[in-house]
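Hi R.,

As promised, here are both runs. First protein below:
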Amino acid sequence: MSLNYVRVTGNDIIQIGTSLEAVKTITAFADGDYARLSFPNDIMNFTIGKNRNMIAAYNAMGSLAELELRLLRGCEEDKFLNDLFPSFDDDALKFSFIFAKIDKKLTADKNGSAVEISEKYTLKNGVISKAPEFISNVSGSTDQGVVVWQVRFAEFEREVTNAPDGTVINPVTGG
């Protein structure tokens, strides 16, 4: 088995909206890490006792997914997210959760054979967790032209398809 694996990334697609069918494709990304999806909590908690006995427990907070988007301040997507932000305070009964889809494309080279790998995330039941911060800088910092949106989701699914050996991986969903 050769250990010569090459992965080339590109053409990631991030969509966000108030339903899985009605999503907006995000395109006005800022610089650097313009999107970051993280899972801050363990899915299982455990402790080890005497004689290496183990007690394990499912942690429901393990299904929490956090999406951070760095966008150009004042872009169409910034306005779209801003319009979603105050909706809970306006009328809690009409509040719509946020959904997102992320599709990461990888080109893989395994032993000289190129393969397209797809990694997809479906994020459900999200809320904007805090208002975007503001910065003004007289030294010309480019960060003043960036807005950072943070969205937390209660549920996620991850799917990896077309792995070089032909397998399809569909893990159990969080939640």
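And here is the second one, sequence first, then its structure tokens:
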Amino acid sequence: MLDLRFVTEHLEEVRAGFARRGFVDEALLDKLSALAQRRREAIVTAETRRAEQKKAGQEMAKADKSSPEFTERREALRVVAAEVKALEAARSAVEAELSELMLHLPNLPADDAPDGLDERSNVVQRVWGERPSFDFKPKDHVELGVDLDILDFERATKISGARFVVLKGLGSRLERGLMQFMLDTHVDEHGYTEIWPPAIVKDDAMRGTSQLPKFAKDAFRIAKDAEWEKENEAAGHDLYLIPTAEVPVTNLHADEILEREQLPIAYAAYTACFRSEAGSYGKDTRGMIRQHQFDKVEMVRFCAPEDAEAQHELLTSHAEAILQKLGLAYRVVKLCAGDMGFAAKRCYDLEVWLPGQNAYREISSCSWFGDFQARRMNARYRPSPKEKPRLLHTINGSGLAIGRTLVAILEQYQEADGSVGVPEALRPYMGGRDRITRD
């Protein structure tokens, strides 16, 4: 969430930043500006009347309690007190409306985010690895996986519906091996602390990481019955299946004040992720690219503002390291202002090469949020023991999306006979096996 004072005092700058993102809602900004003015007026009026209330109280205390003057001043004090109460209630109502409006405003893009409104304006930063060449027509992962009997889409549809998959045998082992390999790399080599968080979170956590209200239609909300409400501490909250480990892990430090020497803090977590993919009808319906349930290892970093840009680059390099260890050709793309996620200030997409699609596809988004999420979560740090707490900066990125990594391995390591090679780094996680064949 943006700072209200900054938005109202730098409205033209904010409008320009939003225009770079393609976010144009003049009515919302005008309403926000008007409400902010009402809030300022309510504060001034309330403070004036509160001073009058204090003065009236002091004068009443000096009067003879049996005198008409005392009764008159007491009645006047009651009137002022009622006015102060009404003014404070009006201010609270305005502030609640302002807070709700602020939740609908996206983050402002960093100055170095490329201009542009869609992916055509994204800028390739670097390309790593050689795209594999084949002396046969490469298959996509669906055909490869079905032929190898490691991916079963038909039975997944039977038990769960469209956009699910059942992994079998070596397919299941490859998914599990990738998860372990990614976590081992991030924990043992990159210094992350491993987290195994809940897969169900309260609405507060979804709001804290900007999933709500913006992406409410893309979330799976859990139905609750009256008996559950009676017995659980989360009663009164909506509960959601997590769309990414970013939600529970980033919220670990909600409403906390960290010390400067604790920073940076780095967490890595595996979770299953759940998304309804609202608005993606007919898009990527084949295979594992866009599913309702998928596995992911997520990296989250908390840092001081002055360290944020360097920490963003560091996290991105950690995601790249996984692709490099697996020998998967990829590129790094800096997203333009109009193609970034709602909460991002700057974002790099890692795009892996998929021969079956003859295209690069996103496998990780590494985003720097500034203090956008921290303000929602009230996550702060103290620069020094006597200084006032400041908002943290948050950074996250997939390290990596496991299903898409599996897809890339199947397609980049495929052989003419339909078998698939196992990257050397993964062989210890595959029982030493160097090839996937149909048993």
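A quick note on the second one: The chain has two domains: 4-102, 119-436. Let me know what you think.

Best,
J.
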